[in-house]
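User: Predict the complex with iron/sulfur cluster.
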Amino acid sequence: MATETPTAVERLRITEIFHSIQGEADAIGWRTVFVRLTGCPLRCVWCDTEYSFYGGNWRDIDDILAEVASHGAKHVCVTGGEPLAQKRCLTLLQKLCDAGYEVSLETSGAIDVSTVDPRVRKVMDLKAPDSGESKRNLWSNLDHLLAHDQVKIVIASRADYEWARNAVAEHAIDQRCMVLFSPVHGAVEPRALAEWIIEDKLPVRFQLQLHKLLWNDAPGH
Ligand code: SF4
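Assistant: Here is the predicted structure with iron/sulfur cluster placed in the model:
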């Protein structure tokens, strides 16, 4: 049986590495280097990064670190796809933390996050029904969230909103960490979502994706 070489153990399949402005979550507005890992086992209806499902290039983790360093940013966001679908993502996260970066991880909520380095700020989705993937929510992940983490729920309809509102209340998610509600571009009026949140006095943070306003979601931003 073939065994992996030591070099192979340290490689990840990467769709892109780029330098931009963080468009969402707690670190919004910071100049950030994004490391987008290839592949995702989910297929959310409204996914805006389908180009990351396939392809990509195998890159040594040390090579990734060198490219990240070349941009001179304090913040690094590891994203996808679903970055945790590649097990060596955990090594990348650890090495980025060791190098002194402020590291965030965007993850679908469908894969166990218990072994993620605790220095990493996890931005973890919970998938509402209109995503088509809510059955994939790994609810035990809520027990592994730290105070600096964030739960993000992307909302495509009033029904999604009510699901999200109930999930937050039922699991007291706001008492674990920050909760973000974000409208699906073109599916729910941002103002309507904002007004629902106000009307129900929810303990959540409304957000619009800054990069969509700035660059209309073009790859590389
Ligand atoms: S988990 Fe993220 S990358 Fe995967 S299909 Fe859903 S939105 Fe797209």
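The pocket of iron/sulfur cluster is lined by residues 40, 42-44, 47, 49, 80-82, 108 (CB under 6 Å).
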